[in-house]
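Entry:
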Amino acid sequence: MHYATNISCQDNTNREPKGVRLPKELALSLGTTEVVLEQTTEGILIRPAPAIPPLKQWPAIFAKADTTLEEEFSEWDITLPDGLEDE
C-alpha cells in the first residue's frame, strides 16, 4: 500500500515545513497516536511507540527482573595501573 502526501506548514505565519499529513486510513492502521520516527537510508519509518506500562505495575515488573551478575570482571584488574607511572 502506497500513499503520496506533502510536507506542509502548520500555520500561515511561518512557511517552514513542519509536518506531514497522513491519510486517515494509514493513521488509523497504526492503532495509536503516539509514534516513533526513524530515519533510514531509504526514508523515514513511522512505527507505533512501544507501550509503557502504568506506573503502578512497575514494582511487579522489577520484581521479575533478573538482577544477578553474569559477567566476571576480575580479569580487567590488570588494566588498573595503565597510564600510571611507578613512583
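The chain has a mean pLDDT of 81.
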